[in-house]
Automatic annotation (TrEMBL):
Residues 24-278 form the EAL domain. It comes from the Bacteria. Coiled coil: none annotated. The chain holds residues 787 to 1068 of 1068 of the full protein. This is Sensor domain-containing diguanylate cyclase.
Amino acid sequence: QAKKLGRNNAQFFTPALNERVTLRLHLESDLRHATERNELVLHFQPRIDARSGRIAGVESLVRWQHPTEGMIPPVQFIPLAEESGLIIEIGAWIIDAACAQHQHWRKQGVGPMPISINLSALQLRDANLPTILSQAIARHAVPAAQIELELTESLLMDNVDDILLVLNSLKALGFSLSIDDFGTGYSSLNYLYRFPIDKLKIDRSFIQNIHTSADNLAVTRAIIGLGHTLGLEVVAEGVELASDVQVLQDAGCDELQGYHFSRPLPAAQFAEWLVAHRETVG
Ligand code: C2E
Ligand code: MG
Ligand code: MG
Ligand code: MG
């Protein structure tokens, strides 16, 4: 038995794993310079008003254009940024870039439309977050009401009283607050009720199966009902099929987001998409 375990342990150090560990280490050190070297970029994905078919807002999603590894998605480097603490600096860059883009589009006559920014749990625990946000909107003359902050559900569970204070202060500054990936965490309904939240975004793992799973459709309908009971708007993430649009409209969903409407796009392409879909996006 011990021999078997030993062999399995030895297998742990495969060349492939070594390569991954090495890549990870060198990514982590490269990440330290990513903001100053201008390697981060925001892409933008529209949210659609389910009733009118018009654009309701836009979500900013960060990418890392690594000089040798190519485009690195956020799921690969946001965790590294969190472990190393760099997320505070990177998060501040993201907040500033989103506000700058909002101002730029407004000057171009595109919008204004609310822009959402994903926040890491560590940013929410940073006492400077309200200041970072306030300075960014002041710098780019963006009304706070145009900024939606997307928070994940798990974040609401630790240090409830501290988090409540932070969220209340962000609300008082005029920002709106959404719970992202709703349904994948385990937030108590009691907290949901206590927190000053404006919106729930139903995780795409539910939405992507509504056409094949009666259970997923039932859960989706229940979340929409729950959200409305609490006075919240409800967004469906990951809408990929035209047939999902109708089902979600019938279920009373307020906003829809997903590849069916558009993938996340670089700023210039997003503006073109917007012009082409100015009237309605069905
Ligand atoms: P999220 O905030 O839930 O963003 C939605 C993700 O789903 C995005 O992936 C988006 O490209 C993808 N998506 C949108 N529509 C569809 C669809 O119809 N089908 C499928 N399969 N996927 C769809 P992305 O951009 O790779 O981001 C992944 C996650 O990384 C985000 O999930 C968010 O948690 C995190 N993230 C992204 N940008 C930022 C950021 O600026 N700051 C922080 N802290 N986290 C970010
Ligand atoms: Mg999000
Ligand atoms: Mg999400
Ligand atoms: Mg997510």
